[in-house]
C-alpha cells in the first residue's frame, strides 16, 4: 500500500493512493471471485478438507480453461463428425521395365571394348558405382571384358565384378564365377559371393565348386557350400552334404543337415544337433548314408514349385 504523501495545490494529504485494478472479462471476473470465496473458506479447514479444496481448485481451473477454448473455437471445429470415406482402389499402373534405360544387346564395338577395359580399374574407389552402372548399360556383351576383373589385384574390384555380373543376370559368366569360388588363394568373402551369384544364375553348373569348397580348411567356406547347396537341385550334392554332417564345426554340420532336409524331405529320428559332438554326428552320418545307399537309384529331386502349390 502506497503511504507516500500526495501533493495537491494548497494542502498535503497522507491518504493512500487508490489501487487501480485491471479490468477483466466477465468470465475471468467470475473465476477470480470464485477463487476469493474459496480462499476465505480455506481458513479453519482440516487437512482432508484442504486436500479436497485443492482438488476443487484444479478441477475448476480445468473447466474454466476448457470452456474458454471451446467458446473461442469456431463452430466448424466444434461440430466435427468422423465418417467413413468410400475406398477407391488406386489406378493400375503399366508394367515398366526394371531399367529406365534398356541394356545393350548388340556386340560391342572396338571403341566400346576399349572403354569397358578402361572401366575395370574404376570398380574400386569413389567412382565404383558409376563404373558398375556403365557395365550394366553396356549389357551382357561386356561380360568377356568384365570377367577379366576377377584376376585383377584388389579384392574390392573382384567383389564388384561379381556384383555387376549379378546385376546383369549374365548366366554366361557362371564358369568364371565357379573358377573364382574354387580358387584357394582367394579371400573367403569373394569366394562366397562368387558361389552365391553362380547358384542364382545357373545352379546346375556349381556342383563342382560345392565339392571343392566342402573340403576347404576354412570353416566359413565350408558353411557357405553347405548353405548354398540347398538351392542346387542335383542328386550329386546329396552325398557331399552327408559327408559334411560329421564336420569339426557344429554350425557347418547344422547347415548341411538343414540343406539335406530341404532337398530330400527325408524325416530322420530326432537328434539334438545344437549340443552334439563330432562323435554323435559321425553316428548320424552313418544313418544318412544307409538311407541314401538304399534310395539313390530311385530317388528323384522334388520340384519346390509343386510342393508350394500342394501345400
Task: Tell me what the structure shows.
- The chain has helices spanning 26-42, 47-72, 75-78, 110-119, 128-138, 143-146, 155-168, 174-182, 188-201, 207-214, 219-228, 237-244, 250-264, 278-295, 304-310; strands at residues 6-8, 11-13.
- The protein has 311 residues and is mainly alpha-helical.
- Among the domains are: 103-202, no CATH class; 206-297, Leucine-rich Repeat Variant (Alpha Horseshoe), CATH 1.25.10.
- Strand 1 (6-8) and strand 2 form a beta hairpin.
- The longest helix is centred in the first third of the chain and has 26 residues, at 47-72.
- Number of distinct helices: 15
Give the mean pLDDT. Answer: 78
Major beta-sheet overview: 2 strands, antiparallel
Radius of gyration: 41 Å
Q: Hey, roughly how much beta strand do the residues contain?
A: under 5%
Look at the helices and sheets and give the structural class: mainly alpha
Count of DSSP strands: 2
| Poorly predicted tracts of residues | 68-72, 306-311
Order of helices and strands: EEHHHHHHHHHHHHHHH
Q: How do the strands of the widest beta sheet line up side by side?
A: 1-2
- Terminal residue distance: 92 Å
Identify the overall geometry: extended
The helical percent reads: 55-70%
Amino acid at each position: 500500500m502506497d503511504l507516500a504523501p500526495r501533493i495537491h495545490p494548497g494542502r498535503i494529504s497522507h491518504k493512500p493512493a487508490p489501487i487501480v485494478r485491471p479490468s477483466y472479462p466477465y468470465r475471468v471476473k467470475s473465476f477470480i471471485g470464485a477463487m476469493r470465496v474459496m480462499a476465505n473458506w480455506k481458513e479453519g479447514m482440516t487437512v482432508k478438507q484442504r486436500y479436497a479444496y485443492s482438488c476443487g481448485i484444479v478441477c475448476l481451473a480445468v473447466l474454466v480453461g476448457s470452456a474458454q477454448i471451446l467458446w473461442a473455437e469456431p463452430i466448424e471445429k466444434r461440430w466435427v463428425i468422423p465418417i467413413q470415406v468410400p475406398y477407391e482402389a488406386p489406378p493400375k499402373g503399366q508394367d515398366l521395365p526394371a531399367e529406365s534405360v534398356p541394356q545393350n544387346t548388340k556386340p560391342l564395338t572396338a571403341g566400346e571394348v576399349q572403354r569397358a577395359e578402361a572401366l575395370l580399374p574404376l570398380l574400386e574407389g569413389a567412382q565404383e558405382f558409376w563404373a558398375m552402372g556403365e557395365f550394366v548399360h553396356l549389357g551382357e556383351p561386356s561380360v568377356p571384358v568384365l570377367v577379366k576383373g576377377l584376376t585383377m589385384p584388389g579384392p574390392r574390384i573382384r567383389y564388384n565384378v561379381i556384383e555387376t555380373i549379378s546385376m546383369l543376370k549374365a548366366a554366361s559368366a557362371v564358369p568364371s564365377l565357379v573358377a573364382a569360388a574354387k580358387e584357394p588363394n582367394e579371400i573367403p568373402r569373394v569366394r562366397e559371393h562368387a558361389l552365391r551369384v553362380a547358384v542364382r544364375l545357373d545352379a546346375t553348373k556349381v556342383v563342382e565348386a560345392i565339392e571343392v569348397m566342402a573340403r576347404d580348411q576354412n570353416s566359413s567356406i565350408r558353411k557357405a557350400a553347405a548353405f548354398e547347396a540347398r538351392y542346387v537341385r542335383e542328386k550329386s550334392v546329396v552325398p557331399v552334404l552327408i559327408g559334411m554332417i560329421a564336420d569339426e564345426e557344429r554350425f557347418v554340420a547344422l547347415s548341411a543337415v538343414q540343406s539335406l532336409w530341404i532337398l530330400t524331405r527325408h524325416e530322420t529320428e530326432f537328434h539334438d544337433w545344437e549340443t552334439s559332438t563330432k562323435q554323435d554326428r559321425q553316428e548320424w552320418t552313418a544313418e544318412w548314408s544307409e538311407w541314401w545307399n538304399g534310395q539313390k537309384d530311385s530317388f528323384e529331386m522334388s520340384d519346390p514349385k509343386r510342393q508350394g502349390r500342394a501345400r
